[in-house]
Specification:
Strand order of the largest sheet: 1-2
Structural class: alpha+beta
Number of strands: 6
Strand content: 15-25%
Largest sheet: 2 strands, antiparallel
Distance between the termini: 85 Å
């Protein structure tokens, strides 16, 4: 039975690089699991031998345009600053509200 072999368009596999990638996956397995449970983005670096984790909630935060991120604005024409109302003095505004399903029902924050 004749054997017909066509040249591969894929680069040759390097067993050592594959071994390092496998070991990287094993090394980061628990961190990747925790990141997935939190809904974080995982980016593999250095051919799988490194990781970068990112919380996508950072995309929902922007500087308050009313106070330019300072958390305060000038009251009237006086020098004293007052708390910025749109951002509540935080200097940032969350564009999409984040709900935490693990938050207990009832009153949130403050004193009873």
């Amino acid at each position: 039975m004749p054997y017909h072999h066509e040249p591969s368009t894929q680069p040759p596999r390097n067993w050592f690089a594959e071994l390092l990638t496998y070991l990287g996956d094993r090394l980061f397995a628990s961190d990747d699991e925790r990141a997935r449970a939190r809904g974080w983005q995982i980016r593999r670096t250095r051919n799988g031998r490194g990781r970068v984790y990112r919380d996508p909630r950072w995309d929902t935060i922007r500087a308050c345009e009313f106070c330019a991120g300072s958390g305060a604005h000038l009251a009237d024409s006086r020098i004293e600053a007052a708390r910025c109302e749109p951002c509540g003095g935080a200097g940032v505004i969350r564009s999409v509200p984040v709900t935490n399903s693990r938050q207990p029902a009832g009153r949130l924050g403050g004193r009873s």
